[in-house]
Design goal:
With 726 residues, the protein is an alpha+beta fold. It contains 28 helices and 18 strands. It folds into 5 domains: 3-62 and 120-214, 2-Layer Sandwich (Alpha-Beta Plaits), CATH 3.30.70; 66-115, no CATH class; 221-342, no CATH class; 354-555, Hypothetical protein af1432, CATH 1.10.3210; 593-723, Orthogonal Bundle (Isoleucyl-tRNA Synthetase, Domain 1). Helix content is 49%, strand content 13%. Strands 1, 2, 3, 7, 8, 9 and 10 form a 7-stranded mixed β-sheet that branches. The protein has a 4-stranded antiparallel β-sheet with strand order 13-15-16-14, sandwiched between helices. The protein has a 3-stranded antiparallel β-sheet with strand order 4-6-5, covered by helices on one side. β15 and β16 (299-308) form a beta hairpin. It is flat and about 100 Å long.
């Protein structure tokens, strides 16, 4: 079957737009083909700094013929209805229609309409101009003499030519004939802007790709990335250095060149006195160059690698020298910023935060820092951190936001705080917390290990969560402008990966205390200073802690949802998280995770699967009978009413399993608790096999239903089995 080759050749396509544009082109063309009945075999799109290319193979040569039956008016209907039917269907007279008999509704006319399919090349000639004209560029422009005319083409940059060919491998392809704003589709494209600017005639994709390569254009972005990475590593290794890999920069640079050529430059060694991250950020942001390190020291070397778009006649000497001049100037600026920052202590910068609003409803940055400082002091003992160090770190952790380097490179916030803290003689843990209190910022980011960093990181994230929850700025759908989901996941990872025994209720209560208090409440807190803050919060209703842990959309359930996401990403089942969270008082995240792990392992066994089936059966019977009787079957069953051995055996098994499971849970041995539950399985199976629950004797029936209730109650020692999906 025929293939399509489409190239849209323009002055420039910004690197940041290329990947999406290629995907949009593939999606728009293939969706339209399918809608027109042309089901293809495969498609692939490519982008370079000057062209978008699409190849679609296995397109049928023509559309399928369509047959459609259209029901018309009844036989004997008024002439107006008949004429309308003939006009709508294209029939010359009723003689061309058939009559369909219907004994109930009467006979009526039916038109059989046959629509022959068009050649695929004609369909392409219709759909491609529409796609080009309506292409979803984030920004587009008009140009030239035609730009003032109505309907002038808008494109990301001036569109120069269009290649559109269609045909099978063994024959010369046809050109898809169409024209857009004076640009006619054809078979001519151009190679590299400087090294092969002449026109090239192409036929189909294989021929097109090969001729482009001969004309110094690497069409596939993935191949360009491979070339850049391999050549950069080779250059670095040739001088006993290692390339500092940067995937984001690699993606960007590959979109700036059609023929990548790696070159190495250098800068003055004096600039190595600047932190390596500042050097890297400067060179990356200003010149899109990679840096290299010395493997013997692990520190940056005074070298960089750039990617040119040309094989220069001088071997790239002029290009390298030009980049060196720019980098020297930018590094001079960075060194000036860094040296200037060192002249002012972090603490001396803090008064400026009094004039900077964090959020109009949550106060200034200074007020937020004060809240974080108080909260970090409360959390510190819970994570074995030094209280004074935690308070000091919390006080200084945001100060680097006011420095020159962070103003120039916001991505270095936190990291520069660490460098400045060390430079002014702060404790190493305090300095580390200045950097690490932002962590973890994503699933791939590391979790701090220093207790001071953990305390400040928890305080920072909890202040954000409770604060925005208090002003009802919760995430909705895909919108999360304050990154609250990320903050909650950060809290979860801090707790789980640090093996911290923290109650979410307790740490939320600590943060809620930071909210404004009435005079009466303030007096109450000061008068009971001998009691712990957590106990006070739990017992003072005026703080409205329930707003955050009760009702729909509460913050505690938000943590549960985030934990489900976290565990699901790790391969766990979300219903098991529900089953554990359903138990009263389950807000110790680490223990929830351990329970879920033990429950998942248990349900993977035959005993677990069968016990789940038995408890589900008991729950279903109870639900039906409780609804029928309008009351729950709670309370202990009467042993004197046991009429069968299976009842007695089940009652004994429940007592034994509940006692063993409760003891195991108390010592946090969840595997042993699950093993205790497994002991119920034989008795449950025997009960359902030999005992009729709905006995004729009402007292016996009620007693047996209470026994089923005991199964439900016993299993809740480890999880709410009703929440578990089959």
């Amino acid at each position: 079957m025929p293939d399509l080759l489409l190239e849209l050749f323009s002055e420039e396509i910004p690197a940041r737009m290329q990947a999406k544009a290629a995907d949009d082109l593939r999606r728009l063309v293939t969706d339209k083909l399918v809608a027109e009945g042309l089901v293809y075999e495969g498609a692939k799109a490519f982008a370079t700094p000057r062209r978008l290319t699409l190849t679609v193979h296995g397109i049928p040569a023509r559309q399928p013929d369509l047959k459609d039956e259209r029901k018309g008016p009844k036989v004997g209907a008024p002439d107006a209805a008949v004429q309308g039917f003939l006009k709508a269907t294209g029939l010359a007279s009723l003689a061309e229609a058939t009559i369909q008999k219907d004994p109930k509704k009467g006979d009526f006319y039916v038109a059989l309409i046959e629509k022959p399919g068009k050649p695929a090349i004609d369909v392409l000639a219709e759909i491609l101009p529409v796609i080009v004209r309506t292409f979803p560029w984030p920004k587009s422009m008009r140009w030239g003499e035609r730009s003032a005319k109505p309907g002038a083409l808008q494109w990301v940059r001036p569109l120069h030519s269009i290649v559109a060919t269609f045909g099978i491998d063994t024959e010369e392809p046809d050109v898809v004939i169409f024209e857009i704003s004076g640009i006619k589709a054809g078979q001519m494209t151009r190679g590299h802007r400087f090294m092969a600017p002449d026109e090239i005639s192409v036929r189909r994709f294989e021929d097109y790709e090969a001729k482009l390569y001969a004309a110094k254009v690497v069409l596939d972005p993935a191949r360009r990335k491979d070339i850049i990475l391999a050549d950069a590593k080779t250059l670095a290794q040739a001088q006993n250095y290692e390339l500092v890999e940067d995937q984001g920069l690699l993606d960007e640079v590959s979109g700036l060149v059609e023929w990548p050529v790696a070159l190495m430059g250098s800068f003055d060694e004096a600039f190595l006195s600047i932190p390596g991250e500042v050097i890297r950020a400067t060179i990356r942001a200003n010149q899109k160059c990679f840096v290299v390190s010395d493997p013997s020291t692990g520190k940056l070397a005074n070298k960089f690698i750039l990617t040119a778009n040309i094989e220069a006649s001088d071997g790239g000497a002029a290009i390298t020298a030009g980049n060196e001049r720019v980098i020297r100037a930018r590094l001079s600026d960075a060194k000036f910023f860094y040296d200037t920052d060192l002249k002012t202590k972090l603490e001396d910068r803090l008064p400026k935060f009094d004039q900077i609003v964090f959020h109009e409803k949550l106060g200034t940055q200074a007020e937020r820092i004060a809240r974080i400082e108080r909260l970090a002091a409360e959390i510190a003992p819970l994570v074995d951190a030094d209280v004074e160090k935690a308070k000091r770190a919390a006080k200084l952790c945001k100060a680097d936001l006011l420095t020159e380097v962070v103003g120039e490179f916001p991505e270095l916030q936190g990291l520069m705080g660490k460098y400045y803290a060390l430079a002014q003689g702060e404790d190493a843990s305090v300095a580390a917390a200045c950097e690490e209190h932002y962590k973890p910022q994503g699933p791939a980011d590391r979790v701090p290990t220093d207790p001071v960093s953990i305390a400040v990181a928890l305080a920072d994230k909890l202040d954000t969560l409770v604060g925005f929850w208090a002003i009802d700025e919760k995430p909705t759908g895909s919108k999360d402008p304050y990154a609250l989901r990320r903050a909650a996941l950060g809290v979860i990872r801090l707790i789980v990966e640090s093996n911290l025994r923290l109650s979410i209720f307790d740490v939320l209560a600590l943060r809620v205390l930071q909210r404004s208090l009435t005079d009466v409440e303030r007096w109450y807190f000061t008068s009971v200073s001998s009691r712990s803050t957590i106990d006070v919060v739990k017992n003072v209703k005026a703080l409205e802690l329930s707003r955050f842990v009760e009702g729909d959309g509460n913050l505690l359930s938000f943590f549960a949802d985030r934990l489900k996401v976290q565990l699901r990403d790790q391969g766990a089942r979300h219903d098991l998280v529900d089953a554990v969270f359903a138990l009263e008082g389950q807000d110790d995240i680490l223990m929830i995770v351990r329970r879920v792990e033990a429950l998942a392992a248990f349900l993977a066994t035959d005993d677990g699967k069968n016990l789940l089936a038995g408890t589900k059966r008991a729950a279903n019977i109870l639900r039906i009978e409780e609804k029928k009787d309008g009351r729950p079957f709670d309370g202990a069953p009467d042993a004197s009413l046991y009429a069968q051995d299976e009842e007695k055996a089940l009652a004994a098994a429940i007592d034994r399993a509940r006692a063993e499971a409760t003891e195991a849970v108390a010592r946090e041995d969840f595997a042993a608790a699950m093993s205790a539950m497994a002991g119920l399985r034989p008795a449950v199976d025997a009960f359902f096999e030999h005992v009729t629950v709905n006995a004729d004797d009402k007292a016996v029936r009620e007693n047996r239903l209470k026994l089923l209730g005991e199964i439900r109650a016993a299993t809740r020692a480890v999880a709410d089995f009703s929440k578990i999906q089959d």
